[in-house]
Amino acid sequence: MQPTGTVKSSVINLVKTIVGAGLLAIPYAFKSDGVLVGVLLVLLAAITSGFGLIVLGKCSKTLINPRDSSFFSLCMLTYPSLSPLFVLAMITQCFGVGLSYLVLIGDLFPGLLGGQRDWWIVSSSSVVVPLCLLKKLDSLKYSSIIGLLALAYLSLLILSTFVYEYTSGHYEQVRGDVSWWSVYDFTGLTSTFSIIIFAYTGSMNLFSIVNELRDNSVRNISTVVNRSIAIATTFFIVVALAGYLTFGSNTLGNIMLNYDDSSIYVHVGKFCLGSMVLLTFPLLFHPCRIAVNNLYVWVELQREKSAESHQECEPLNANTPSSVRPISLSVQDSESRSLANSYGATQGDDAIEDLETAGNGSPQAGMTDSRFYVITALLLTVMYALALNVDSFATVLAFVGATGSTSISFTLPGLFGYKLIGTDYLAAGQVIPPSEVFYKRCSFLLAWFGLIVMFLSLYVIYMYGTD
Fold first, then answer.
1. CB atoms within 10 A of CB 30
2. In the prediction, which pLDDT does 467 show?
3. Which of 362, 424, 449, 467 could serve as a FRET partner for 110 with CA atoms 20 to 30 Å apart?
4. Which regions span the lipid bilayer (predicted)?
5. Is the per-residue pLDDT at 314 higher than 70?
């Protein structure tokens, strides 16, 4: 498929991937953190997440064909033995959050429009399934625009309520204590830290955006990331400040629960929330399907290698069918051979073999039509079946966020960047520029930051649960 993405459409999809229902939990984080610390944590999350996205974009340029980039291709290039583990992290993250969205749909719409919970979950498939059958992420830009309009209404509702409460003097009746400069609750600070960090998760769709951009230069990728992070940060800070300063220490985990349920504006806001969740689901399903396909490909590659080793055949070569080869890392000319040798110099001879034998095709090109529809049908069937039978799985979802989200947002980008950034210069016999050395060292720190966030989040889940 020809790349059709523009900077504008890519920003729309990335912002919609990042800004989801988690937006409404940010004011609750400020309840414990206070205004100053809360804003600082939002900026920390913005900087680290944005840096991770840019690192992934730069890593895609180390591939012979940058449009074949994916988490799986970079895993096979850098840590091939750990590829299935990293792919599973992606699957659990996207599957878990997507499933929570279906459950939320069943919780929201019956209270707004009547009807049974199960009926609303099943009927949501009339919107979800057609969107999930679109093969390109760029095709979801129009549904993402509708989702962003819903987000804009929610943000305006929260902001306008704050302005009204202050100008009318009613805020004293609904607002609790407000902490401007100090932390209000240190125990709560620990337990809400992950809320802000996880709110910026958007790396699951970064490679699809890179692959589909008509001009996927590093400059364009950086523009998409910087604009998306800036827009998302504006959403987060405006909603957090307006919501927290309206209700103070009375702020609930979902800020919408603080508002008068009899208000027509609040009803419209909850409808917008349900619509936003409905239209965000396909953005999470898209990378989940790619990850499942890549796991299938990895299993097929291992089976082929095992069969060839038993038959004492030659190693996997370029004649292996493209339908099971998701990575474009085959060595076809002297320049590519030089690149392969540069990896081998730092990673050993096995890396050269992986480069030469991993195959070609993007995540979409490496997925036959029949496999595309089979994976789509299986995933949707399982997710809907679970959504109909699970009322709450907060602990599982929190665990998924602590492990999967931190892995794909910080740890993996950091590991990839530390190992790959600058190798294209070495392959050409050039000295790595200071700017690339800076990115490489910061990538190492990002990986450690991800591990710290993961263990801190798991500690919070163990000590305080998910209440």
1. 30
2. 55
3. 467
4. 12-30, 36-56, 77-105, 146-166, 186-207, 228-247, 267-285, 372-390, 396-421, 442-464
5. no
Asked if residue 158 lies in contact with residue 252, where contact means CB atoms within 8 angstroms, the answer is: no
Task: Give the confidence band of 438 by pLDDT, cuts at 50, 70, 90.
Answer: very high
Residue 235 has pLDDT above 80, yes or no: yes
CA distances from 72 to 29, 86, 265, 286, 296 (A): 34, 8, 45, 15, 11
Enter the tokens of residue 193: 């830290």
CB distance 289 to 376 below 8 Å: yes
CA–CA dist 323, 44 (Å, integer): 41
Token digits of residue 111 = 């209270």
Q: Residue count of the chain, please give it.
A: 467
- In this predicted structure, the answer to whether residue 306 has a pLDDT above a threshold of 70 is yes
- Whole-structure pTM value: 0.80
Burial class (CB in 10 A: 0-12, 13-18, 19+), 75: buried
Find out whether 365 and 324 touch, Cβ atoms under 8 Å. no
Q: Is 245 within 8 Å of 251 (Cβ atoms)? A: no
Q: How far is CA 456 from CA 110, 192, 286, 324, in A?
A: 37, 11, 29, 38
Torsion of CA 212, 216, 218, 222, to 10 degrees: -50
CB-CB contact of 110 with 271 (8 Å): no
Query: Domains (ranges, CATH) in the chain?
Result: 7-286+394-464 (1.20.1740.10)
Helix orientation angle between 369-389 and 125-132, rounded to the nearest 10 degrees: 150
Amino acid sitting at position 65: N
Residue with tokens 């610390």: 37
Tell me how far apart the terminal alpha carbons of the chain are, to the nearest angstrom.
46
Q: Are 28 and 176 in contact (CB under 8 A)?
A: no
The pLDDT value recorded for residue 353 is 38
Whether residue 322 is predicted with pLDDT greater than 90 in this model: the reply is: no
For residue 264, the one-letter residue type is I
Q: Is 106 helix (H, G, I), strand (E, B) or coil?
A: helix
Instruction: Give long-range contacts, CB 8 A cutoff, 24+ apart: 338-345.
Output: 338/427, 338/428, 338/429, 339/62, 339/64, 339/423, 339/424, 339/427, 341/427, 342/423, 342/426, 342/427, 343/77, 343/423, 345/426
What's the rounded Cα separation, in Å, for the pair 120 and 398? Answer: 25
Q: What is the largest CA-CA distance in the chain?
A: 82
The answer to whether the beta carbons of residues 342 and 331 sit under 8 Å apart is no
